[in-house]
Amino acid sequence: MGHRIVPMTDVPGIEDLWSSVTQGVWPEYNVHGDVSGALWDAFVERFPEFQFALLDEQSGDLAGRGYTIPCAWDGTVDGLPGGFDGLMEDAFALQDRGDPPDTLSAMAIAIRPAHQGQGLAARMIEHMQAIARDRALGALIAPLRPTWKERYPLAPIERYAFWTREDGAPFDPWIRLHARLGGEILRPEPRSLRITGTIAEWESWTGLPFPDSGPYVFPQGLAPLEIDRDEDIGRYWEPNVWVRHEVR
């Protein structure tokens, strides 16, 4: 089965199509970020030329999407945005000022479950590099959401990011793929994407009851969720790992 990558703008009604097929692509809680959830629709509308779609050539079905955002970065580890949330806020502010970007950041790669395991993620990363190259942006950076971190939610991301296999390759499959494509780990980001909600909202998002205040691990969560029943609130910070790809 073949696939092709096309600009998002070449797929009429892509938002309606995507909303009907996203089950299993992202965990429910992950789309309710305090910053990312509020800015996501505006992000896609404001930067349409930086988004693309993955189509099944045989059926024409929408198989996946890739999201990137132009930003400014001084090339130093200390100069990286403050996680996923900071990246979005900085990129919006950059555009509002009318200042030119010099870097491209990956935001997300989403592939429907039926199309996973076919090497498509690597093609999409390479396409992101091509977007940066075509627009003369000096680097591709990415705040990665490590695939297996949900299996080890109590392990600090500062340690998990550097776990390796016996062959020396990164332990996490998503970090490992980026490394295979030339990506370099720059910095673990323990507080990258903030999600807060009422206890009822968190119970709906996770399918778990939270009968008492305190920290909880939950399905597909990368770090503990902190529940405060007195305030009726759950607070969660999703960790990420910053990587950089050279653009040649």
Structural commentary:
The chain has 248 residues and is α+β, with helices and mostly antiparallel strands. The chain has one domain: Aminopeptidase (3-Layer(aba) Sandwich), CATH 3.40.630.30. Helices cover 27% and strands 29% of the residues. It is built from seven helices and nine strands, in the order E-H-H-E-E-H-E-H-E-H-H-E-H-E-E-E. Strands 1, 2, 3, 4, 5, 6, 7, 8 and 9 form a nine-stranded mixed β-sheet that branches. Strand 7 and strand 8 form a beta hairpin. The radius of gyration is 18 Å and the shape is globular. It starts with a strand and ends with a strand.
SSE inventory with pairings:
Layout: E1 3-7, H1 14-19, H2 36-46, E2 51-56, E3 62-71, H3 83-97, E4 103-111, H4 120-134, E5 139-144, H5 157-160, H6 173-180, E6 184-197, H7 199-206, E7 214-216, E8 225-228, E9 233-246
Parallel strand pairs: 4-5
Antiparallel strand pairs: 1-2, 2-3, 3-4, 5-9, 6-9, 7-8, 8-9
